[in-house]
Design brief:
Cyt_c_biogenesis, 22 helices, single chain, about 50% helix, transmembrane helix
C-alpha cells in the first residue's frame, strides 16, 4: 500500500481550502473601504500569495489523484471504483472526472486558471472580483475535504482508502493491507473520446459563469454599477461559447454512443445544464444593451446573478441524489446535500441582498422603446430565452418539490412527464420559432436607422425568400409523403428567415466596409441548429421497416417488430435501396487497425487475452502470427454489417457495438454512423443472443473420417484436410510429455465462404482431453473425440445450434450536419465578438442607412 501519495493529496486539499479562505479574506480586506483600483498593498500582497499557494495546492491534488489512477493504486477507493488495469491512458483521464470528487476538482482547477487570467487582464478589478472567486473556491474545495468536525462530515475525499469506504468486507479482518489486483473499471459507455474532451469543456463553461457574477457582485459592492459590464463582457461571451459547445459535445456523445436514436432526451441532468446556458445568453444580450445603448442594466444584473445561481442549483440537482431514478446521468448521493444547499443559499442571499440595497441606484434609461427600437427586440429575445428556461427548470424540479413536501410529511402525487421528449418538445418548439425570428429581426434593426419605410425595405426580400423556401420545402415533403404540421412549417420558415436575415446583415456590412459581425455569425449558427434539429428529428427516414409480416420477437412491441429487421449471419436482406448483410462479430485489438474477426481468435481464461487462430494482418503487414498471444478489449463486441446501395452500387461497412453491463440493465448497444454531407445513416442493434447465456447445442453426432474425406454438416460440406501437432492449446498450458493434435477441417459455407476449424485432441499422463472448435457463422461445433492410429480413422462429434443473428434498426437522419455545423458557427461568432470588442476603437464606424434618426453601431449584439 502506498499511503504517501494519498496523504500528500489529502494534505494538499486542506492547504488549498485554507489558502482559498485566506485569499478571500485578504482580497476582501484589500478592497474594503477603498475605491476601485486602490487596494491596500499589504492585504493585496497577502491575498495574491495565498491564491498562488491555493493554485499550487490544487495542482498537487490533481497530480496525486491522477497518479493513483494511472499507477493502479487500488488501495484507494477512487482508483478502484473508476479505473482498471486495461484502460488506455486517455480513458484513465476520463476516470479522473467520472466521480463526483474528480469533477469538483476539475471545476476548481479551471477557476484557478481563470483567476490568474483576471489578475493579468483585469488588474484594476482584481481585489473585489477575486474576493468572490476565492470564496467560491473555498466552498468548492470544502466539497472534497473529507474531514469530520464535531461529528459532521465535510466533503468527500478522493483519497479515502478502500478499506475505509467498504468497511463491511470480511477480507479486512484477515488482510488489513489487502489491495485488489484490478479495479471496478470505467463504464464502457464512457470509453469514448468525447468523454475525454466533453467534461473539461463543460466544466470550463461552468467556471466561466462565475466571472460575470463576480464582476457584478464587485460592482454592487464597490458601487461601480456601470463600469463592471465592459471587463465582464469578453468573459461572458467566451463562457457562452464554451458552455454551448460543451453541451452540444454531450449531445454528440449521446448521438454516437447511446441507442435512443437521437442526441437530446430532455433528461433532468441535461436540462439542468441547458437552463443556465439559456439564461447566460440572455444575460449577454442584456450586458451588450447597456454597453452599446445604455439601457437594460438592471436586467443585466438580474440575469447574470440568475445564471450563476442556476449553475449552483444544477450542481445541487445532479449531485444531491434528489433526482434518484429520474436521470441516468445523476451522481449518487455522497452525503453532500447539506453542503450544496449552504453553498447555494450563501451566494443567492449575498447576491439578492446586494441587489436590493443597490437597486434604486442602478441607472435606468429614460429612452422610450417602441416597435422601431432594436433594444426592444433584444429585450423580447432575452425574455423568450428566460421563459424557455423557466418552463424547463420548473418541470425538471418536480422531484425537488416532492422531496421538500415530503420533508414536512406531505405526500405529493407530482411526477415528471411520462414522455418527456414529447412534453418538452411540444413547448420548446415554439421557443425555437421565436428565437429564430428574433435573431434575424434584432440583427437587421441593430445595424440601421429604423422607421416604417426602412424596416419594410429591409425585411420584405428576406420574408419573401423565407416563405418561398418554406413553400418549396412543404411541396417536397408532400411529394415524398412526409407529414408537415403547422409548428414544423413555422419553424422551417423562422429558421430560414434567421439564416437569410443574418446573412443579409453580414453582406450589407461587408459592402459598407464594416468588420465581420460576431453576433450575426452566432445567430446564423443558432438558426442552422434549429433547422438541423427540425430535419434530423422531425423527418428521419426509417430504413429498417419489417416488410416480412413476421414477428421478430414476441417480447417486442408491435412498433418494435415493425421498425426492426432480423439479420441472420451471412444472409442478405433488402432494406429500401440497400442490400444489408450481417457478417460476424469483431473485437478491438490494441495496435491493430480496425477490428478483428472473432473467428481468428481463441478466447482464453484471461478475458483480456486471446490466441491467434490465423495470421492477423492488414494489407501486407502481419501484426500477429498464428499461435501468438495477443491482448483484446472485451468490453465491446462489434457486429459487422455491410450495406450496398443497389441504385448507385456504393457500399460501406458499419460496426455497431453491444456490451454486457449488469449495472445498467444487461445488454447495451451503441450505434454506428455512415456520414454524408446531407444526412447520416444511423444503425444500432436492438437485440442479440445474450452472450452471458450458453447457447443450447444439439446432441453430438459422430462421424468417422480419414484424411481427405468429405462430409455434409448442417447443409454445408466439409473436408478433413490433415492432422497436425498443436504447439499451443487455448486455455491450456502445455507441459513436457503432453501430446496435442489438431485437425484441419475446411467447411464451405454460403457464397463460397470457407472456414477453418481446428478441434484439438490432448493426451496427458494417459488422460484424454478435448478442445472443440466452433464455426459461429454456421452454428457448428466440432470435437475430435477418438483417434484410431491403426486404421487411420478419426471420429469427430458434430453439434449444431441456432444461427447467429442480430436485430437491427437503421434510420437516415437528414440535415443532421446543420446542427453540428451550426454549433461551431455559434461558438465562432461569440469568439469573433470578443475579438471585435478588443479592437473596437480601431474598427471603422458604419454609415447608417437613411431613415429615422439614430446612430448605427460598429458592434453587433452577440
Amino acid at each position: 500500500m502506498n499511503l504517501f501519495i494519498g496523504n500528500l493529496g489529502q494534505a494538499s486539499v486542506i492547504v488549498a481550502f485554507v489558502a482559498a479562505a485566506v485569499a478571500a479574506y485578504g482580497y476582501f480586506q484589500a478592497a474594503r473601504g477603498r475605491a476601485l483600483g486602490e487596494a491596500d498593498a499589504n492585504w493585496l500582497r497577502l491575498a495574491r500569495g495565498a491564491f498562488f499557494v491555493h493554485g499550487a495546492a490544487v495542482l498537487l491534488v490533481v497530480g496525486a489523484l491522477f497518479n493513483i489512477i494511472h499507477a493502479h493504486r487500488y488501495e484507494y477507493y477512487y482508483a478502484w471504483a473508476h479505473s482498471s488495469n486495461h484502460l488506455p491512458v486517455h480513458f484513465m483521464i476520463s476516470c479522473f472526472w467520472e466521480g463526483q470528487e474528480g469533477s469538483f476538482l476539475l471545476w476548481i482547477f479551471w477557476h484557478v486558471l481563470i483567476g490568474l487570467g483576471i489578475m493579468k487582464f483585469n488588474r484594476q478589478w482584481e481585489a473585489p472580483v477575486l474576493a468572490v472567486f476565492a470564496a467560491v473556491q473555498a466552498f468548492l474545495v470544502s466539497m472534497i475535504l473529507g474531514v469530520v468536525v464535531g461529528g459532521t462530515k465535510i466533503g468527500s475525499s478522493p483519497f479515502i482508502l478502500l478499506r475505509d469506504f467498504l468497511t463491511d468486507l470480511p477480507v479486512w479482518k484477515t488482510q488489513p493491507d489487502f489491495v485488489p489486483k484490478d479495479g471496478n473499471g470505467l463504464n464502457a459507455l464512457l470509453q469514448n473520446y468525447w468523454m475525454v474532451i466533453h467534461p473539461p469543456t463543460l466544466f470550463l463553461g461552468f467556471a466561466l459563469t462565475l466571472v460575470p457574477f463576480a464582476f457584478a457582485i464587485a460592482g454592487l459592492w464597490k458601487k461601480e454599477l456601470t463600469t463592471w459590464v465592459k471587463p465582464a463582457l469578453p468573459w461572458t461571451s467566451f463562457g457562452g461559447a464554451v458552455l454551448g459547445v460543451g453541451i452540444m459535445m454531450g449531445a454528440y456523445w449521446a448521438y454516437e454512443t447511446l441507442n435512443f436514436g437521437g442526441y437530446w432526451n430532455w433528461d433532468p441532468v441535461e436540462n439542468a445544464i441547458f437552463v443556465p446556458w439559456l439564461v447566460l445568453i440572455a444575460a449577454l444580450h442584456g450586458m451588450m444593451l447597456w454597453q452599446k445603448r445604455r439601457t437594460g442594466l438592471r436586467t443585466a444584473f438580474v440575469l447574470v446573478v440568475a445564471t450563476f445561481v442556476l449553475i449552483l442549483y444544477a450542481t445541487f440537482l445532479t449531485r444531491s441524489g434528489v433526482l434518484g431514478a429520474a436521470s441516468v446521468h445523476s451522481f449518487t448521493d455522497l452525503g453532500l446535500s447539506g453542503q450544496l444547499l449552504i453553498y447555494l443559499g450563501f451566494f443567492t442571499v449575498l447576491a439578492i441582498t446586494l441587489l436590493v440595497n443597490r437597486w434604486k441606484s442602478i441607472p435606468v434609461s429614460d429612452k422610450e422603446l417602441d416597435a422601431y427600437s432594436p433594444e426592444m427586440w433584444v429585450f423580447v429575445g432575452a425574455t423568450v430565452l428566460c421563459l424557455a428556461a423557466f418552463q424547463v427548470v420548473f418541470t425538471t424540479s418536480i422531484p425537488v418539490y416532492k422531496a421538500f413536501l415530503g420533508f414536512f410529511g406531505i405526500k405529493a402525487n407530482m411526477a415528471l412527464p411520462a414522455d418527456q421528449v414529447a412534453f418538452y418538445t411540444r413547448i420548446q418548439l415554439w421557443s425555437g420559432v421565436l428565437i429564430a425570428l428574433l435573431s434575424g429581426i434584432g440583427q437587421v434593426m441593430w445595424w440601421q436607422r429604423n422607421n416604417k419605410e426602412s424596416v419594410i425595405n429591409a425585411f420584405a426580400p428576406t420574408v419573401m425568400l423565407a416563405l418561398l423556401g418554406t413553400a418549396l420545402g412543404v411541396l417536397l415533403l408532400r411529394y415524398f409523403d412526409h407529414p408537415i404540421t403547422v409548428p414544423y412549417a413555422l419553424l422551417l420558415a423562422a429558421g430560414l428567415f434567421g439564416v437569410l436575415a443574418n446573412f443579409g446583415t453580414l453582406f450589407g456590412l461587408w459592402r459598407r466596409g464594416v468588420t465581420l459581425s460576431g453576433g450575426a455569425v452566432a445567430h446564423i449558427g443558432i438558426a442552422l441548429m434549429l433547422l438541423g434539429m427540425l430535419g434530423s428529428s422531425g423527418y428521419d427516414n426509417l430504413l429498417s421497416r419489417n416488410v416480412t409480416g413476421q414477428l421478430i420477437n414476441q417480447k417486442m412491441s408491435e412498433e418494435e417488430n415493425s421498425d426492426n429487421v432480423l439479420l441472420l449471419r451471412n444472409e442478405t436482406i433488402k432494406m429500401q435501396n440497400y442490400d444489408v448483410t450481417y457478417t460476424g462479430q469483431y473485437l478491438d485489438v490494441p495496435g491493430v487497425p480496425g477490428y478483428v474477426n472473432t473467428q481468428l481468435l481463441y478466447r482464453t481464461d484471461d478475458e483480456y487475452k486471446a490466441v491467434a487462430r490465423g495470421d492477423i494482418k492488414r494489407e501486407e503487414k502481419v501484426y500477429y502470427k498464428t499461435g501468438d498471444t495477443l491482448e483484446i478489449l472485451p468490453e465491446n463486441t462489434y457486429y459487422r454489417v455491410n450495406y450496398e446501395d443497389k441504385k448507385t452500387n456504393e457500399s460501406f461497412t458499419l460496426y455497431p457495438r453491444a456490451q454486457v453491463n449488469e449495472e445498467m440493465g444487461g445488454i447495451l448497444a451503441s450505434p454506428a454512423l455512415q456520414r454524408y454531407l446531407g444526412h447520416d445513416i444511423y444503425s444500432h442493434i436492438t437485440s442479440i443472443p445474450d452472450p452471458r447465456k450458453e447457447q443450447p447445442w444439439s446432441p453430438s453426432i459422430p462421424h468417422e473420417l480419414a484424411v481427405g474425406d468429405t462430409i455434409f454438416l448442417n447443409d454445408y460440406f466439409a473436408v478433413f484436410r490433415a492432422i497436425e501437432q498443436a504447439h499451443a492449446v487455448p486455455g491450456v498450458k502445455l507441459q513436457p510429455g503432453d501430446i496435442a493434435l489438431q485437425a484441419d477441417i475446411i467447411v464451405s459455407g454460403e457464397k463460397g465462404r470457407q472456414y477453418h476449424a481446428h478441434p484439438i485432441f490432448l493426451l496427458r499422463d494417459r488422460q484424454v482431453g478435448r478442445v472443440p472448435d466452433e464455426v459461429e457463422d454456421l452454428g457448428l461445433r466440432l470435437t475430435l473425440d477418438q483417434i484410431d492410429p491403426v486404421k487411420g480413422k478419426f471420429t469427430f462429434g458434430v453439434s449444431t445450434t441456432a444461427k447467429d443473428y442480430i436485430v437491427l434498426k437503421a434510420t437516415a437522419k437528414p440535415f443532421i450536419n446543420l446542427l453540428w455545423g451550426g454549433t461551431l458557427l455559434m461558438g465562432l461568432g461569440l469568439c469573433i465578438s470578443i475579438r471585435q470588442r478588443r479592437t473596437a476603437k480601431a474598427a471603422p464606424v458604419a454609415k447608417p442607412a437613411a431613415g429615422r434618426a439614430g446612430a448605427a453601431r460598429p458592434q453587433a449584439v452577440a
